[in-house]
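User: Please predict the structure of the protein below. I'd like the answer in structure-token form so I can feed it into my own downstream comparison script.

Assistant: Understood. Taking the following sequence of 182 residues as input:
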Amino acid sequence: MGKDNMETNKRTWEESLKVGEIAEDVFAEYMTYLGKDIVDVRYDKAWQAKDIDYLVYDDDKDMYTVEVKNDCLIGKMWVSRLRRFFIEDIQNVRINSDGFYRYCECDVLAYYDQLKELMYFIDWNELKEYINYFYYESVDKDKVEYVSGNNSAGFGVYIDKCEQWFIDNDKYFKVVDMKEVI
């Protein structure tokens, strides 16, 4: 990445893909560590249309789909209550192109905090319901707010409050410190 891009946190599309691959590699290594069978479908157009990176098979051969996202910025928020997931609603605000929130069909979102080396595993459908409820219905900006990225826009989901809500409501939310396992 060029110096100018690093200083402004702006990346080209190709640079963003490389950043994303870091998280995808960490995810694949973790699944291997767990002994899971995975199928990499990142380059399959049919799965790309659904924004799905991996098919994961459990011991009993049940399959679930995973989308992996990498975030290089949330780890910079040293005060945990300010840390949030960025769930992209609009990929490019100039042309109003759909972000992954609008078309992703995965079962599990694996969201990687590259700086802290934490990977969050979240039930994608439950997260979308959480966003819809706290942004559109109950309007709780302490849980979800609409934010702009460099060239995108989406939902800022405050991690601590989201995790607590998922735990309190018996929803799937898991945090793995990758420094401890791979």
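That's the full token string. Residues 1-9 have pLDDT under 50 and may be disordered.
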